[in-house]
Design goal:
alpha/beta; Rossmann fold; nine-stranded mixed beta sheet; five-stranded mixed beta sheet; about 35% helix; binds S-adenosylmethionine
Length: about 500
């Protein structure tokens, strides 16, 4: 198969530069079926690659009635396609789609390249032309995939159908608002397909993806949402319209709100409770300290003694996620780690004339730590970001339940945890917030903003956490101080029981 040959003969960096990741044929088939439902005469693929969509179209259009047009920027990949037998109903342009004046089509089908628009060299020339075409201003930090989509939507004929693979992030990001607006404006968006574990369906994908199915019929109707659970489901399903789906009225998907929580809550037993507000009312999550050379900065008791570094040049610091296994982390837990010789101090040079520190910095320079990606842009290279100890910590990567910690210690943390810094409002209810995070409702609602990395590994960025939903002030006011204290005391010795009591308490305040 030409894809296997191409991948084996092409360096990964080259493919990454062009965003060359391929659509599995079973997925291409669903997309092609959608686009061909109304018997199109013309079909466009703006990012042709090795032509998987063309191959699938040919299987249905055996007598080559359809005029197929493809754009592909990379001549090299096209040469692999030209080695095959292909029909005479295809026009292929070795051009940049974003610059091309393509005309319009009855069907458009695409797996666009994913990369930040800033990486796109010709963006300064291209952007004004596209903005003129779509009649909208685009923000410079868009993903190139969204620019492909917005251009293609303008090139779709009346009653034409479009199928696009898109990185799911546009549901929630700032630049995604314009994309969502374009999809909703003329009621184009008809069906969204998401994947429970896209690594199984898209082994090549480096980001979470979805498929968008659109039709330019100007009919306001419910938007279908399908969650594909396994590859088998795509292979065995009879027709795209028979895929099991939920339906959402378009008014429930406003372009200026995040879509992930609404869409994911359709498939979760947990619905977002009434009255919930966004977390940033109570404070904000920040990532932990990024040193760029943890093995140099993180120091254990024995290392500190060996180097003779004094406490004034050290900072108490959680440097690895497994150091905190308890839900409640106290100063005494910190001391236990220190005496167990875990690296729980971070070099934080305050006395630049201290001989021991000077010597250790020299050792670091000799080992090349001063030339790392993050250290070389700092002045001096061993300068540490300033952070206060945070009262609540969240694990960055989670499998299953979220790793949430109530931190009573005076330790700061590296990037293994995100740190919650409360506003004044949040400060006064910090324990109540913790109880919510601990509960099943909190876990499920927060995870609606997650990014999946395959193998059930889930990642939350500080931005995802800041925009997650939680009880409003009136709901928190229904929690009694004693009840909250009891949960925290319980969590010190029995996490499962603490979760159970939190669940009862949260159920009471949301059903009140
Ligand atoms: C994600 S791949 C998809 C390939 C194929 N359609 C598939 O689904 O397997 C995107 C393709 O778009 C090409 N590409 C990248 N930038 C482009 C541009 N500005 N114009 C046209 N093609 C582009 C890449 O070289 C790559 O082959």
């Amino acid at each position: 198969m030409h894809e296997t040959v191409y991948i084996s003969e092409t360096p990964l960096d080259y493919r990454k530069d062009y965003g060359q990741f391929f659509t599995p044929p079973a997925v291409a088939r669903i997309m092609v079926e959608w686009v061909m439902k109304d018997h199109p005469e013309t079909i466009l693929d703006p990012a042709f690659g090795l032509g998987v969509f063309y191959d699938e179209v040919r299987k249905i259009d055996s007598d080559q009635q359809i005029q197929f047009t493809g754009y592909e920027i990379d001549e090299n990949i096209l040469n692999y396609f030209y080695h095959n037998n292909y029909g005479n109903n295809i026009r292929l342009f070795n051009d940049d789609y974003l610059e091309a004046d393509t005309g319009s089509f009855d069907g458009i089908i695409c797996n666009p390249p994913y990369m930040r628009f800033q990486k796109f060299l010709k963006r300064h020339d291209v952007l004004p032309k596209i903005e003129e075409k779509i009649g909208k201003k685009l923000v410079g930090y868009s993903n190139i995939a969204s620019i492909f989509l917005m251009k293609s939507l303008c090139e779709l004929n009346k009653n034409g159908r479009l199928a696009f693979i898109m990185p799911l992030e546009f549901f929630n990001t700032g630049y995604g608002k314009e994309v969502k607006r374009s999809l909703l404006e003329k009621h184009l968006l008809k069906h969204i397909i998401i994947f429970e574990n896209e690594k199984e369906v898209f082994p090549e994908a480096t980001t979470t993806v979805c498929i968008l199915l659109c039709k330019r019929d100007n009919k306001k109707e419910n938007i279908k949402i399908t969650l594909i659970k396994s590859e088998e489901e795509i292979n065995t399903r009879p027709d795209i319209d028979d895929l099991p789906c939920r339906q959402l009225h378009p008014d429930n998907l406003p372009y200026d709100k995040k879509w992930s929580p609404v869409i994911l809550s359709l498939f979760s037993k947990q619905k977002i409770p009434k009255g919930f507000c966004e977390l940033y009312l109570y404070g904000a999550f920040k990532r932990g300290i990024a040193t760029g050379a943890n093995e140099f900065f993180a120091l254990s008791k024995s290392k500190i003694e060996e180097l003779n570094i004094s406490k004034k040049n050290l900072l108490k610091c959680i440097t690895k996620s497994p150091q905190v296994n308890k839900t409640i982390f106290t100063e005494s837990d910190f001391e236990d780690l220190f005496y167990a010789d875990k690296p729980v101090y971070c070099l934080d040079v305050k006395d630049h004339n201290d001989l021991s520190v000077i010597n250790y910095i020299k050792v670091g320079e000799q080992a090349g730590f001063s030339n790392r990606y993050l250290t070389r842009i700092k002045n001096p290279w061993y300068k540490i970001e300033r952070r206060q100890p945070a009262p609540i910590l969240f694990g960055v990567f989670n499998r299953g339940r979220l790793k949430v910690i109530r931190n009573y210690s005076t330790a700061v943390n590296f990037t293994c945890f995100h740190s919650f810094y409360p506003s004044l409002l949040g400060y006064n209810i910090i324990d109540k917030l913790f109880v919510y995070f601990l509960s099943d409702v909190g876990n499920t609602v927060i995870k609606m903003n997650k990014r999946s990395y395959g193998g059930n590994l889930e990642k939350l960025e500080p931005g995802d956490l800041n925009e997650c939903l939680c009880p409003n002030q009136d709901q928190f006011a229904l929690m009694q101080k004693e009840e909250v204290e009891k949960i925290i005391e319980t969590a010190k010795i029995n996490k499962e029981l603490a979760v159970q009591i939190s669940n009862e308490l949260i159920a009471r305040i949301i059903n009140n």
